[in-house]
Amino acid sequence: MTYRITLSDTADTFEVQPGEPLLDAAERAGFPLVHDCRFGGCGACRIKLLSGQVDYEEPPFGLTEEERDQGYALACQALPQSDLTVSAQLLPTGHIPADFHQATIERLDKLSHDVTHLVLKIPSAREVAFHPGQYLNVMLDDGSPRSFSMASPPQGETFDFHIRRVPGGYFTGHLETHYQPGDILDVELPLGTFRHAVDSPRDLLMVAGGTGLAPIKSIIESLLDRPDAPNIILYWGVRHAEDLYLDERLHHWARTLPNFRYVPVLSEADDQWGGRRGFVHEAVCQDHADLSSFDAYLCGPPPMIAAAKNGLAQRGMSVERIFSDSFNFTHELDDSVA
């Protein structure tokens, strides 16, 4: 049997077929819910169940136990088991649709032993005012995409990325050996819903794992020159000191910008490291007993995102004020990274 879904904010309704994910039914009915990965990993399609029940073929990784207990669900995986009333976010009127472009590799620089700074020149995308935090897809010869977040705010036709080499990765594993400046890539942009909530007056807690720094950096740089820039605390978690590929620049920001603080955290530090140790979300929770006055932006591996969400919620942060981008969930086996 079909079930009727009611959107609480507008009272609009649509029907979902048996076994059909709620997101698919909403799109079929002309209601573009905010979403991203469609695999239950990123959490972008989170909705609030006000009445009714849903089930899943498998529990989605992008929804924490605390979120489920509070009545949240992920529309891309949720299978309605009754009529529902939900609070859901639609794509904004000013949403920039993705399009395909040709990009020229302008630079390939090593940032660390396994991270490359890729700079693409995309003349046809000069007027694409993407939101800091979004990503693009590099389209491979077989038509499959590899997703990489922009590492800087919009800057004309130039786009830069931090790309971690994945051993055996079809694209990243050959980036430095098979590609060179002048080569052409087919790309799709802009993509993703990870971005700064500009209408929020709260201070910002930014938590990055590895090359999850890229979209976080893009958001931070878009705010630094604003006269009303919020206070920003950045926690960056990596394994070893050599993985802190932008450490010097971030320390410079911390010394020269009164509203910016930077805390690097190593999970596998050697005896020479005098800074913070352990998992990055643990450092955040050790430093802050009450996080209710912050908005949080998280980007990194799925386990880090899940652990951080749980920790932040336990310290008073509203689930609705936690924005995350689980950058390698859908393509972990084929090398997409942030």
Automatic annotation (TrEMBL):
UniProt-listed SUPFAM superfamilies: 2Fe-2S ferredoxin-like, Ferredoxin reductase-like, C-terminal NADP-linked domain, Riboflavin synthase domain-like
Cofactors (names): [2Fe-2S] cluster
Domain FAD-binding FR-type, chain residue ranges per copy: 98-197
Residue ranges of domain 2Fe-2S ferredoxin-type in the record: 3-92
InterPro entries: 2Fe-2S_ferredoxin-like_sf, 2Fe-2S_ferredoxin-type, 2Fe2S_fd_BS, Beta-grasp_dom_sf, Cbr1-like_FAD-bd_dom, FAD-bd_FR_type, Flavoprot_Pyr_Nucl_cyt_Rdtase, FNR_nucleotide-bd
Superkingdom to which the source organism belongs: Bacteria
Protein name as catalogued: 2Fe-2S iron-sulfur cluster-binding protein
